[in-house]
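Re: weekly structure request thread

Next one in the queue (197 aa):
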Amino acid sequence: MLLRVTTYGEPVLHQKGGPIDYFTQDLKQLAADMVETMYENEGIGLAAQQIGQLIRLCVIDVQLRHDEIEFPYRFDGKITPLHLLMPLTLVNPVIKSFHGEDVPYEEGCLSFPDLRGEVVRPEGVTVEFHDVEGAAHKMESSGILARVVQHEIDHLDGVLFIERMKPAVRKSLEAQLKSLQRETRAQMKAGRLRPME
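Done, posted below.
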């Protein structure tokens, strides 16, 4: 089932998600719906806040960006083919360490349609998480996969990618941001968007 993606200006995007302590069919279905929604919107990541849920859940699929995948990456200590991992669902993810240099990259976000800007992030991360069955995993990644992991976990903490931008970059996007925020609030006021808080 396709879900509505929240847009900049909705309060839920600045709220932290709570830990998930259930691994039920409902969680599996929510993750599947998030993956479907991510694909429909041509995204490579989607976090729970972006569909109005205040839980620590995100989905990722970077296969379309395979040319940007940097090796090695390890899943539970083993180098694993990308197609066996994706789409990837992360329940209660925690970044345990960063590695490599800080690297600039132009990011986008499904909650900020048509807006992109440079964000500097560490080139690699080690993250621990559970899957929808409740099994624990550890993943080490670099490049675009590591970046998407950081972007989505930021969402789970109520942090938006524009808040990671250097002041000059964000300033250059200020007019677009204000316009998007006004449009979102107008649609909420008119009842065209159901409130998500």
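The helical segments are 25-40, 82-85, 143-156, 167-172, 174-189. The first helix runs from residue 25 to 40.
Next request, please.
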